[in-house]
Design brief:
- By secondary structure, the chain is α/β, with parallel strands linked by helices.
- It has two domains: 151 residues, VC0802-like; 158 residues, 3-Layer(aba) Sandwich (Rossmann fold), CATH 3.40.50.150.
- The protein is 33% helix and 23% strand.
- Strands 2-1-3-7-6-4-5 form a seven-stranded mixed sheet.
- Strand 4, helix 4 and strand 5 form a beta-alpha-beta unit.
- Helix 2 crosses helix 7 and helix 3 crosses helix 4.
- It is elongated.
- It starts with a strand and ends with a strand.
- It binds S-adenosylmethionine (SAM).
């Protein structure tokens, strides 16, 4: 039975682990960097289609002790790559090497690429080409403490590229980071939710899809495994069936989800994205400073703009903090790249989780406003 590995954005491993368990995957283990699980091959397909939080789904092709370049080459040649790759297809090999005699990731990737290419050439007389951008087959090697693990990447393009975000505003969140934030915020998928600074609508769209059990991968045209040489007519049929089952399993549950921004243009982008994503949200052009706390308590999840401009805008932050302190009974989760926000809110968060958004170190600040 294949062993899979769902890679995670740093510090979202626990959220991903919970998600995979809830989705019914087996032998799911919490692990730094990503979550291993097991199942039939089709479970790897299902993970690509159903996980909101995983970055990629990899399948383990082999594990070997490796202390020099020859051992690495031999270990890589033993794996039956020609089941997946022909000379007519393209390949890329990436590597992370830590704590091993072979220290240079680039060199390790090159030797593994040589082994794979030689294997294909021995069988077919021709070698596959390398394509670093959009290969048919992606191989990933993790070399740690002189032990190499060889993976095939089932996802192809990373899974956060759902296909619904044709355009975006400034600094959009990765879709899988947004999904992880929603889970970490403690939102129960029923309480009315608002993102008052929604930008391209990522948090609100992910929330609506999650509540409706709409599998995020259904809007993706194609995954990496569909380009492999072994992906035949029968598999195509099974995948079509799986897609149909997942579509039918969507509950259509629609809690109230409100997306606001004070930039009309970006709000139009969010509206268009939500249409492509197949979810209904309620939009309004409004400043967060006009947010009212009347009506039932809601969950607020947002990521304000940050960077030099906002972090020095103490007056705005002070007002925003006052608005948030008035939201009695609300749960509030803010992804912030600025420590000034925490100071402006003035009450201690119930939780603070370090996250990386793009290349920016942030904190997810979670409040229960009493
Ligand atoms: C970092 S972006 C949000 C990105 C969003 N999460 C996404 O994935 O696209 C911050 C957003 O806050 C909006 N914004 C700035 N000041 C605001 C205010 N006073 N009220 C409401 N929205 C505001 C900006 O227009 C911008 O779209």
């Amino acid at each position: 039975m294949p062993e899979f590995y769902a890679s995670a954005i740093q510090n979202t491993e626990s959220a991903l682990c919970d998600e995979l368990r809830e989705l019914g995957f087996r032998s799911v283990r919490l692990n730094r960097g990503g979550i291993p699980f097991r199942g039939e091959w089709s479970e790897g397909w299902r993970a690509c289609l159903e996980s909101r939080i995983a970055q990629r789904i990899l399948v383990v092709m082999g594990r070997n002790p490796v202390s020099d370049a020859d051992q690495l080459y031999e270990a890589a040649r033993e794996i039956p790559w020609t089941d997946y790759l022909t000379s007519q297809q393209t390949l890329s090999v990436n590597c992370v090497a830590v704590g091993s005699a072979l220290r240079h990731s680039g060199f390790v990737a090159l030797r593994v690429k040589d082994a794979i290419v030689d294997q294909v050439r021995d069988l077919e007389g021709e070698r596959p080409s390398i394509d670093r951008e959009d290969p048919d087959v992606r191989v990933f090697v993790y070399l740690a403490n002189n032990k190499a693990t060889f993976y095939l990447d089932m996802s192809g393009q990373p899974l956060h590229l759902r296909g619904y975000r044709e355009k975006s505003g400034d600094a959009p969140l990765r879709e899988n980071l947004a999904a992880a934030i929603l889970r970490m915020s403690g939102w129960d998928q029923k309480t009315p939710l608002i993102d008052p600074m929604c930008g391209s609508g990522t948090l609100a769209i992910e929330a609506a899809q999650w509540a409706a059990r709409l599998a995020p991968g259904l809007s993706r045209d194609r995954f990496g495994f569909e380009r492999w040489n072994n992906f035949d007519e029968d598999m195509m049929q099974s995948l079509r069936q799986l897609r149909g089952e997942l579509r039918a399993a969507a509950t259509g549950q629609k809690p109230s989800i409100v997306a606001r921004d004070n930039d009309g243009e970006v709000l139009d982008i969010a509206k268009a994205n939500s249409r492509i994503a197949g979810v209904q949200l309620s939009f309004k052009n409004q400043s967060i400073l006009d947010l009212q706390s009347d009506g039932p308590a809601r969950t607020l999840v947002t990521n304000p703009p940050y960077g030099k401009r906002l972090s020095s805008d103490d007056e705005f932050l002070g007002k925003m903090g006052a608005v948030i302190r008035r939201l009695h009974g609300w749960r509030v989760a803010i992804l912030s790249g600025s420590s000034n926000i925490e100071r402006a809110i003035k009450i201690p968060p119930v939780n603070s989780i370090p996250l990386v958004n793009g290349d920016l170190d942030c904190q997810l600040l979670i409040y229960q406003i009493d």
